[in-house]
Amino acid sequence: MRRTTSRFSRAGLAALLALVVSVLGLGGASPASAETPALAFAVDKAQATPGSAVTLTMAFTNTGTADVRFVWQSFQPTWETSSTSGLKYTWTTCTADPGVTCTPGKGASYSVPIAPGASRKVTMTYDIAADSSCGYPDVSFYSYIYYKFAGGLPAKEGTFFTPATRVICPTTPPAGARV
Length: 179
What we know:
This protein is 13% helix and 42% strand. It is mainly beta. The strands form four sheets. Strands 1-3-8-5 form a four-stranded antiparallel sheet, with no helix packed on it. The N and C termini lie far apart (89 Å).
């Protein structure tokens, strides 16, 4: 026996499915409701030449509603940065807000508790070697962070990437040219 389905019942089924997806929130979050990232990065230069210094700033913010009671963070170069043999840089300094200890190129340790809305800032500087290669790839890093809240609230974690700094080749003006 052959069963026929009308166009209206197919449309009704599609509408019902769309309603269920939107009610249950399975369609994804809208950009307006996106959560503020807990870790933010900035670099002072998008481009640098061999022999120059680059300053990287990272800020951890408690975006939750309870005190942060535990923070674990790792910090390392991206695969492209670490696998390029001619790209050379050296971490030189690390300064931080009170309640934070840091090691150049290694990240930070945070004293807890960190109140909701409070931030801790770390600034690290690295020097690009005078004999470093230039061009692609860029110098960039990433950090994994895991943190727990007071009151049994769920822990959060994430991987965050720094803005990249392109090491550009210095240009030398031709002999006799005016600078």
